[in-house]
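#lab-general

N.A. 3:47 PM
ok so I finally got the sequence cleaned up, no stray characters, all 250 residues accounted for. can someone with queue access submit it? mine expired

B.Y. 3:52 PM
send it over

N.A. 3:53 PM
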Amino acid sequence: MAYRSSGAGYADVAGHFRKRIEDGDLAPGDPLPSVAEIREQFDVSAKTVSRALGVLKNEGLVTARGALGTVVAEPRTVTSGVDRIPRLARTGRRYGPGEDSTGHRVMMRSAHDPKVCRALAIEPGEEVVIRIRTFRQGGRPTSVALSVYPPRAWAAVPELASEERMSGYFGVPYEERTGREVSVGKRVGYLRLASQDELDALEIKVPSVTPVTVFVTDVTFHDEDGPIAYWEDVYSPDAKVPVPMEASDQ
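B.Y. 4:20 PM
back already:
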């Protein structure tokens, strides 16, 4: 169905195609409609279409391809775990175009990392479920994703402790089974030194004495009774990570 909006601006046009690309409806190499078709679809001027395409090109989402016109570019950014949730809800797709994951591991361990214990409000030594996987883009590792769940999370969603891959976002069955709404905390980004396991997963070959700095983001999920999950993404040093724009409190 054509999208029409009276008085649509270039940001509306750019946002429409950005979402289709991020959702995987348009894959790398797929052509966008012609300028004439976009003008007709959105009831806008050629100048508006040109500005919208310029925005998408600057974001690295599309590129000019001669006689083919404007096509979707190969992905240049890495999607974090928490950013996958809206796409999963909209489309059911866990992966973007050209993306997959390997190295899936599920472990039940005693938690001793002070940061994880603080985030989940648990005592050191308490048992948690840890899920780890490496995301890849075009066959190249781009990030290592780790998620940690305290007992009350995997008691409600025992699939979290299974070796099987989760079919969707854990928050959906958690809310259905407990009646408690899951909220996502503020995502935080920072630099730290990579562990050897992370270097191996990201296929970074350096001497063991060479420190490698990586960018990391983490976020904690909560329900009304407290934290129920901690997610961490460790990105390859050459990865480009989109920065979410948050509304100011002005």
